[in-house]
Amino acid sequence: MDRTFLRLLKIAKDYKLWMLAASVIGFFTIGSSIGLMMTSAYIIAKAALHPSIAELQVGIVGVRFFGIARGVFRYVERYLSHETTFRLLAKFRVWFYEAIVPLFPSKLLKYKSGDLLTRAVNDVENLEHIFVRVIAPPFVALFVLILMLFLLGSFNFIYPVIILFSFLIAGIGVPLLSYKLSRKTGSRLVKLQARMNELILDQTQGLGELLVFNQTGKFKEEFANTQNTLRKLQRKNAIIGGLNEALIGLIMNFSIIIILIYAVPQVNTGILEGVYLSVLVLGVMASFEALLPLPTAVQFFEQSVKSADRLFELTDANAVIVTGKPDTREPDNFSITFDSVQFGYNSDKLIYDNLSFTVPQKSFTAIVGASGAGKSTLINLLTRFWNYQAGKILLGDTKLENISQRKLREYISVLPQTTHLFNLSVRENIRFAKPEATDDEIIAAAKKANIHDFILSLPDQYGELIGEQGMKLSGGERRRLALARAFLRNSPILICDEPTSDLDSLTEQKVLNSLYGYSKTATVIIITHRLFHLENADQILVMYNGKIIESGTHNELMKKRNYYFNMMKVEKELIV
Amino acid sequence: MHIDKKLINLSLGNRSAFFLTVFSGLLTALFTIIQAYYLSKTINEVFLKNSNLAEVKYFILLFALASLLKALFVWNEQNFANLIAENVKQQLRNKLTAQIFKLGPSYTKSSKSGEISNTISNGVEKLDAYFSQFLPQLFSSALIPLLILFFIFPIDILSGIVFLVTAPLIPVFMMLIGRIAESMNRKQWKTLNLMSGYFLDVIQGLATIKLFGRENDIKKKIAVISNLFRISTMKVLRIAFLSALVLEILSTISIAIIAVEIGLRLLYGNLEFQPAFFILVLAPEFYLPIRQLGAKYHAGMEGVAAAESIFKILEEPVQTNNQKSHVPFHDFVIKFENVSFTYPGGRNALKNISFSIEQGSFTALVGKSGSGKTTVTNLLLKFIKPSEGKIIFNNNNFNDIDSKFWRKQVSWISQSPYLFHTTIKENILIAKEDATAEEIINAAKSAGIHDFISSLPGGYETFVGERGTRLSGGQAQRIALARAFLKDSPILILDEPTSNLDPETENELLETLNRLTENKTVIMIAHRLRTIEKAGQILVFSNGKIIERGTHNSLIAMNGYYSELLKTYSG
Asked: For chains A and B, what is the number of CB pairs under 8 angstroms?
């Protein structure tokens, strides 16, 4: 069987008893209708011979029993299979989360765009069908087959052989045939669907360009063409898919004919009691119910395997970050030193070649430069999201590798360029930085980040839910909320990536003042392209192409009349 | 109009396929009845008259023939149902894309563009099950039982009555329980979605989780929340599944009643075996379509939910285009006369503004974001029309000028230009479809992007986008500039990029812009002093109004909002 699928089963194996129970009850459900039809046939066939009513009693009880049992089993089966599905889904979620955490973000570079991660989450949710649609149907069919072999075997050996073959053809042959027939169109279909989605994106996002450059006609034509081809393929697939139900029904009817061909002479010669002729036929008819979900099982199997393949491709990447031998000793101070650091996200393109600088503890340092100069990468190295290739980074006198992940998180707080706000209340979002924080601490942090007054203006104040990814908030509000989080941590090092973007100039100044204040007790680094209010910074490092090309205070750098001076000139030109 | 009616109307657009689907369904039922008849004949002959195989072979052959024909029509029914689904999907997608073109960029920007593209691709796909499964089943479950009754009544009135009485009970009970269960179900699906939402939230927030060292807490929380959701969902499903229980029990009990009822009458000689067996074989077939409707109901409902967002887009009011396609273009003046614009949500983006733009002039629009600058360019691009007031182009009402004709005279560079999922060459070529290779290269050279394109392995044939090369914001800007150079139109509408580049690149870009705007009528949302200074007319926006206007020097002399802006931003 498929390797991917086996790996999935391995993850699901904790719930094998649940799966077994649900499948067995599923089997009982179909078993009941086989029982119902066989006893019904027995009653009327027997009745036709006009015996005493007593002889029908057993059959009548049986019919009632199976009639009710079918409904009850169906109920229990649905209950169990949903319970199993939810348990499996929870398991898959935890598994995926556990697998992806150590890989983030260095191994997920190509998943940087949120869409791909969203797709991965969808892939996890797609696995929800794996039990009800993929695993259960073959088991139920197998159990039904075994039941039928026994039931029919009690009459004559030939009937089990007939049912075995017809089950094999209808249950394996038919799904396999349609799978083979639709396979080629399947992969073309996937490509065309991707192309159609591209076109849809092109339209919704590039609408202005399409209109201004008068491309609507051309676009409509290409869209219509893609749709037409897509439609042709989907029609072809549907025609093949439609064969399944028809063929399974046909095989059922022909197995009844074959059974009749064998059974009629046996009735004639008295080997088979005439009463059982109708019992046999209706039993076989009822048993085919178990085969109907099999063709869809193949489709869902393929879909689950595809989803799982994508997930495994992601989770199979080896995490490189191995914490060396962490020292128990604390760093003697919280200065930061980069010493001849070499780093590139890909081996073929270096971001830093021999980067060196020092940030003294309890100081305010601004790292400035144009976008793309390599400023934000500093954070990825300091948090050890990525490993650098050569040189060393020190906190005080301790090498970064010798600090445990847990300690490192305690020492360094980061305000990244884009912060994720969870779909929780304002309070819980700030508290995320320090689960044990009191409400007072949270308010103090919010005040420092200049967001307290805004929070009080919200209908629910600190209890306000902020919506998916903080959708309800403006960019500046989100920024300050994230800053409140960073302040709450109260760690000895704070690094902020563009802390004042999206803020109006008045708020910008207030936020910067808070940061200046914080630098009295901690090492503060801000990474920015806005050269605004940096007059008080203890140190400004100017970065260009992954190198520090100038450093000094604002006044010193202005006197040099070099790169910083020119940046300042450009900056002054920007009005709004 | 109710959403179901709208959907059924769509399928009626494919009348013949719809008719053929229902017709095939009926023929399927008819052959099922014929099958049952010959099967009961065969068994009756063998069982009670001890006929041999030769004597019943015609019955068996007819049974086989009916089986073949049944299979054929089962297949056909699905084919035709799929044909409806495919037709409807195609029609809807074409309608949707046409509608999006009419609604224009201000619509796709205001509602989330991701939502719209999701509706066009996935939303429409979800309707497939509605048309290919639910709708045909709806008709089958009404027609097939009737057809079976039509054959059973003449044979045995009592069984016919049992069928007739029990069949409506199923939908009645379904509705009674279904209504309670359905609302609970819907609520529960919402909570289920919340669960997936929570998981997505966590995965997207991985960086934050890691930065704050909360990995293990969150892992436990995923498990705990998943379990809580499971328990509350199962509480609801326990009740919702009752509808399945009732459905199953009603149909199986009815079969049991039929079996006992005809069995007893057989016993007392009030009924023959052959019709009795015929009725018994048909009994499950009688209830099958109604039971299947229950199973396909959910798929149908998903389609209905998706249809809501589809119709929401399709029913969005659009502006009509009635239009002069030729107005002289020399010596023109564009006049805004008391123009206001209100977005559908009610936001007043422009309030009663007036100004004019003369041919060959350079107008800079200045102001904070949200002050109304982009609305002005959207009006000039004919993406939207004034809610009140008029725009006059020479002596023509701007609304009356054909938008295609107008846009031929206009080039536009947005703040974040869009690159299409195709080659770089095609991306430049949209500006002038019949451009020669030389013209394209010249345009790229003028935009300062030729060297970069040549350095790519595929050159001008390199694909851009998800599957191809990703270009940086600055490179995309330059492709957009190349488009504008290639189009060489008399009017230029520009949104100056604010992204911070290093000083050298910045200088180069401004110079390129200078060359592009030479001898053109330029309307520019401007952010840089060097650009603004060149403008013959500066319009200063605040809160949807023009609060100051003039040249750079005259505005400085005013010592008002403009000079305030200059001071705050440039320190």
From this structure: 426
